[in-house]
Amino acid sequence: ATFVFGSPSLNVYTIVAFLGAGATAILVYFLGSLGRGGATPLNLTVAGAALTALISSITTAILIVSQRTLEEIRFWLAGSLAGGDINMFFQALPFVLIGLVMAFALGRQITTMSLGEDVAKGLGQKTAWVKIATAISVVLLAGSSVAIAGPIGFIGLVVPHIVRFYIKANYRWILPHCAVLGAILLLVADIGARVLLKPQELPVGVMTAFVGAPFFVYLAKSKVKK
């Protein structure tokens, strides 16, 4: 958005964030569904990592070409809570609330879907609509988060697996626990980013990557062994 529109308004940032989140979700699902077994969690994770690498390469090329864009967004690109704009927060707040309500309301349906799509259909669930509603909720939440703080990675990868250690398959409880634990993990990472190289401050996305990258490798290896 900065490269194309210069220094756009908050409305433009918000719209571009949601468009990017929606397009990325569609591409990840499409690429993940091409793998063996269809859109499994592992296939979606690998597709997301591959697409992230591609988009990062494009972003790097843009930053090399445009020094102005680099100066404006270099700290935001690493993911940071520092210097956040309260107006951007209030701009995104309605979308966050809608996404949270949808996510929590879909807890029962997602629990049923986790038993398998055939089982869910046998229980009378309209799986296509559940997938669409879940995707909309994810796009709203992810787009809002990125618009406010930048791409803070690995929180969404690590936290659900931690929660699954003590809450097995009931997503009516998994989702709110993920929200609370994710906020706690982000807060701890932000504190670490502020004090590790004091008086300088690291982007919080760097701190979450230190934890998330090894966890991603462990997750991929454990899935392959199974």
From TrEMBL:
Keyword flag Transmembrane: yes
Keyword GTP-binding on entry: no
Record GO terms (molecular function): transmembrane transporter activity
Alphabetized UniProt keyword annotations: Cell membrane, Membrane, Transmembrane, Transmembrane helix, Transport
A GO cellular-component term linked to this record: plasma membrane
Chief place of localization: membrane
Subcellular location: Cell membrane
Topology with respect to the bilayer: Multi-pass membrane protein
Membrane-spanning parts: 12-32, 44-66, 86-107, 174-196, 202-220
Top-level lineage group: Bacteria
Annotated GO biological process: siderophore-iron import into cell
Record-linked SUPFAM superfamilies: ABC transporter involved in vitamin B12 uptake, BtuC
PANTHER family: FE(3+) DICITRATE TRANSPORT SYSTEM PERMEASE PROTEIN FECC-RELATED (PTHR30472:SF1), FERRIC ENTEROBACTIN TRANSPORT SYSTEM PERMEASE PROTEIN (PTHR30472)
Entry similarity comment: Belongs to the binding-protein-dependent transport system permease family. FecCD subfamily.
Name by which UniProt lists this protein: Iron ABC transporter permease
